[in-house]
Amino acid sequence: xxxxxxxxxxxxxxxxxxxxxxxxxxxxxxxxxxxxxxxxxxxxxxxxxxxxxxxxxxxxxxxxxxxxxxxxxxxxxxxxxxxxxxxxxxxxxxxxxxxxxxxxxxxxxxxxxxxxxxxxxxxxxxxxxxxxxxxxxxxxxxxxxxxxxxxxxxxxxxxxxxxxxxxxxxxxxxxxxxxxxxxxxxxxxxxxxxxxxxxxxxxxxxxxxxxxxxxxxxxxxxxxxxxxxxxxxxxxxxxxxxxxxxxxxxxxxxxxxxxxxxxxxxxxxxxxxxxxxxxxxxxxxxxxxxxxxxxxxxxxxxxxxxxxxxxxxxxxxxxxxxxxxxxxxxxxxxxxxxxxxxxxxxxxxxxxxxxxxxxxxxxxxxxxxxxxxxxxxxxxxxxxxxxxxxxxxxxxxxxxxxxxxxxxxxxxxxxxxxxxxxxxxxxxxxxxxxxxxxxxxxxxxxxxxxxxxxxxxxxxxxxxxxxxxxxxxxxxxxx
Length: 479
Description:
The chain has 16 helices and 19 strands. By secondary structure, it is an alpha/beta fold. It has a domain at 68-378: Alpha-Beta Barrel (TIM Barrel), CATH 3.20.20.480. The longest helix is centred in the middle third of the chain and has 22 residues, at 244-265. The N and C termini lie far apart (69 Å).
C-alpha cells in the first residue's frame, strides 16, 4: 500500500514556487538590492554586476551560479566533538531566543537583562537535552558597555558550554574577534578556515537592503568559510507587501542577494536560508509574531529553502505575550509545531522568548524546552515489527484482561512514553497538596535547580588562559 501524508495546512505548489522565484529574480534584476558597504559594492563591480550607486542588480545567471556553489549540508563543530551537529535537509537543530533586552519574572516584573542572565542561559543550554547550539544575544547585558558586551558574551558561550555557538555579528570587528576566540579553542585561526565552528546571523534591512554592519559581518564570516544564516525580517504590510505572496517574493530576493555575496567572497561558504518575517498588526503597527500568518510563512520558507537545496531557518517558540501565560503557550505551540511539521532545519528562538522578541524568561525557557521534548517525541516514527506488535502479550492477556502487570509493560514503562518534568499529571487533590502552583512557578523552580547543579565543562587550561588574555586586551583596545 502506498503511504500518503495528509496535511491540512496548504503547501505551495511547484508552479507557485516557480512564480515566487521568478518574481524575486524580477525584483533583483529591475529594482535591485542596496548594499551599504563600499567593499561589498567593489566585489560586485569586480565580478561584473551592474550597479547604480549602492544598488546592485542581479540576473538569473548570477543567482544560479551562486546557488551552485553553496553546500547543501555542513557539520557545525563543537569544542566537545560529541556535541557537533549536522545542518542539512533532515536536521532539526535548535537554538535559544536572540536579541531580547529585557527579562520577565514569574511576578510579571520586566527588568533589563544583565550578564548574569546571559551566563545563566549558557548554563541552561549546556545542561539541556533539547537545545543544540548556544545562541548569541539571548539577552542583552545592560550592566556591560554596549561596545564591549559582545566579548563577555562570547567568552560565556565558550567557557560555560561545550556545544556549538553562534557568534556576534553586531559589527565586522565583532566577527573577527569571535573567530579569533574560536581559533584559541580549535587550534588556531588557520585550523578553522572552511571548518564551521561557529555560525552568524545576518539580517537584511527590509525593504531590499543590507546595512553596513550586516554586509561587513557577512563578508568576514565568508572570508573564513563560516556559515551565515541569511535572514529576511519583513514586517508584512509595513516593510514588505501586505500580501503574503509578495512578502515571500521580497524575502526571497533579499536572501538570494545576501547568498550571492557570500559566494563571491568565498565560494562554498555554507548558507542557511532564513526567515523571521511576520505580519504587522494593523490596529497597533506592531510586529505580530504570534499570528497564524507566521506559521504560514514558516511553512513557505521551508519549501523555498528545499527548492534551492538549502537548509532552512525559522523561529520557534514565538509569542507576543508579555508573560508566561495561556497566550504565550498557545502561540508558541503553534509556531513550534509549524516549524517541526514544515521541516525547518535550524530553529532559532526555540526557547525563552516573550513580548515579540523583546524579553526572555527562565520559566518560558523551561516550558519551551519541554515542548521541544514533546515535539521530538512526535517526530519519532512508530516502530512496526513482530516484537512491537505485541501479539504474544495480547494473546496472554486475552479478552477482558489488563496489560499493566505484563513483563513488557514493566520493562518499558519508564521510557516507552514521554514523561514530562514540568507538566505534571497529578489529580486535583494532589495539585492542591503541592501548593496549587502555576506551571510557570514550577518551571522557574526547575530552572533554579538546574543552575544550582551546573558544573562547568572542562577546557584546556592554555586555551582558557589565551581567551581571558585576549578579552582583557581587546577591552583595553576598544576603550
